Protein 1
Amino acid sequence: MKNLLVTGYRAHEIGIFDQKHKGIAYIKKAIEARLAPLVEEGLEWVITPGQYGVDLWACEVVIGLKKRYPHLKLSIITAYLNPEEKWKEDKQKYYKDILKALDYYGSVSKQPYNGVWQLTARDDLLLRKTDGILLFYDEDAGEASPKFMKQRALKKREEGNYLYLSITSEDIQAIADEEQRDVQDSQ
């Protein structure tokens, strides 16, 4: 596998409203645990839609992994121009800092948000240009935006050679529980 799409929840969909939330560290550890073996096996590109949440946390993970794996490349492909322009200033700065570390940035539509068709076109492109997906989504937690990407990725997997990997809330909780045990054991 050469190209992997990584996406999932927007931050607000899982109750995260700032970068200081302790859950982000556990999400990033889960992403890294899934990505590192793939990079060892030859993964070259990680591509995200660049939404505020799992997409950008995955970017942070890849930026860190690039220190150990300099061949690894990172891309954000957005649905439309300037998706961050309505975000709060701190989130815009965070986004722009990540953009500086990318190997490729592009947007499917060369205009500001104009309709859901832009999101569909972006998802079409991302699924077409990748060999698999790592998706953080839990159907048990209720419906959210990653539901549609999951449906499309599973359909693509059924049609042929497309890898579907997932991260669930249980995976994140297991990492948090393990860290708690480690802290208690060290005291």
Protein 2
Amino acid sequence: MHDSQQQAAPEKTVRANDVDLAVQTFGDPAAPAILLISGAEGTMDWWEDDFTDRLAASGRYVIRYDTRDTGRSTTFPVGAPPYTQDDLLADALGVLDAHGLAAAHIVGISMGGGLAQRLGVAHPDRILSLTLISTSPGGPGGPDNPDLPPMSEALATMFAEPSPGPDWTDRDAVIAYFLAGEHAFSGTIPVDEDRVRRTAGRAFDRSPVPAAASNHWMIEGGEPIRARLGEITAPTLVLHGTADPLFPYGHAEALAREIPGASLVPLPGVGHQMPPYQVWDTVIQAIVEHTAR
């Protein structure tokens, strides 16, 4: 084991796009840079320290950040986010700018993977490579993407009859909300409840306004991007769980087919979730090899 304290820089705040973004880096700033972009509602904490440490120890400069409305970044009134996906794109580029990076390797999960695709199309000069985890070229199947497999019946029912959110001021209730979500979106690998509770608790403790993260579900998504995936020039790696109930594996196959030269690595038993530690060996090796090109 290496000393993670040597790997991690203290958390700091950068100003970008008229918001404050909380950022933390790991590893040598002279090494190839990887920007990690979280999914909806996810603070940077979900990119766990052990995961970022291992990437850094593999010779990468790893940057994670709280997207706006999460963690210690700027929050907006709950239910009325005055921004769009384009602002989230500008925030990601602002984090690169704040670190003096003309370009970086982008690793995005779920909503962050959608943002990564948009970056690849709109800002190819800023992208050294893309890694797309648990994401989709077009969202859950439907009239706009009839060829993409639909979400599981259990999830469809859950979305059709949503339960009220937690009391966002109650730490235990918020942890229970994230734990229930992990179970709903997981695959066949058992959920490590202690690990999820620990991460959710840390995210809560770092979030002055935990409820603001729900704004991510309300923002304008922008023009559909699927028709432009063929324009992506960055080397692209697709990592996807074989048991994803939201974006079944066919979504990953479509991404890999429609992005020129993309490679696809299945994650057996993984659902729609941050890669569980059981597959970290596969995920970290794949990212390190991909970002070495």
